[in-house]
Amino acid sequence: MKKWMVVVASLCLFAMAVQAREYVPTPENLESRKNFAESRFGIFLHWGLYSMFAQGEWYMNNDSVDAREYAKAMNAFYPHRFDAQAWVSAIKAAGARYICFTTRHHEGFSMWDTQYSDYNIMNTPYGQDIVRQLADECHRQGIDLHLYYSHIDWTREDYPAGRTGRGTKRLDRADWPTYYRFMNNQLTELLTNYGKIGAIWFDGWWDHDVDSVPFDWELDEQYRLIHRLQPACLVGNNHHQVPFEGEDIQIFERDVPGENKAGLSGQDISALPLETCQTMNYSWGYRVTDHYYKSTKELIQLLVRTAGKGANLLLNVGPQPDGTLPEAALTRLAEMGQWLDRYGESIYATVAGGYRDGDRIMTTRNGNTLYVHLLDTGIDRVSMPLSQKVKRVEVLGEGTRIDYKYKKGVLDFGVEIPDDCIDYVVKVTLK
What we know:
The chain is of the alpha/beta class. It contains 10 helices and 16 strands.
């Protein structure tokens, strides 16, 4: 074969190999993305062995607790008041469309009946599969279940420690191939034994983000495994980067997309479905001293601001050691549900409305209906650019017509907002 033909053939083979590695989502996956984006509101549940210490989910690392001593808490873990039906019912009543549950956090403790580690819920005095109960109840009540899974482990010595977990275990026994195989075996269990799973939500990539030699997490193969086991299952990774090949959603931690107030969300915004995860108080896991819950008004306005950016809100609750949800959280969930019962059409199945004024005015849109969310009670007049002509302007939830002017691409109308109003929603029907 002539030299030039060899070169051309080699280039063709290379191009085919590159193309073969490109991720092409299945029709089922694309439908899942659509349903995910339309849901707009989910609840995050950070629950594990760490709840017993009541110091948050990072207690083990923050105090460099020896992993063997920490593991002794397993012998006393008995969440006797856990009731999957009560959890799911309260979350559904809050208007949330999905739940994301921490199956295994950085502490390494598995909350299901796994055959790949003895460090799991079945070997506690409680001895019942939490993921099984939650999955069965979610399927029964029609709530999608997403599963959080940590890429890092502060207990297993085969995990090559990054910048965390360096004081909790021996560091000279790292064995990445063994650990990688362990993770994929557990993921296979979760995607095989618990019915339809809406998403796998990864965390921990950032543990090696300052390595002098970039760490190879072998995500491509892991993502392919997930999509092979459940083609409709979405993959998300809380890595604080632009989405990697094979991911289906983009996650923003503690920030509305486009903002970077927490310092974790400076990345560009992709065309994938978006999700903001945020705590209801300060902590993700249960912390006995954390009483600083955001008010219902703050939480509803956060939901509106995320929807106004075209994103979901994944709002966290940290269950207590006995298996119950904190009363303060339940109260806020119930109040959010009452608000969504009345104003949910301005949140669910909407996209970003295209106009906003800081945190004072947000807009969402569904087809020819534009929702103008007025979050500042001091607003008495709105004048905003709008390319489509207007058919009607009214107060959502009341049906009261609002007089307006539409001239030269500008919609103008006046409002009288009650002082105690959380979000004054104006429904604009377009021609």
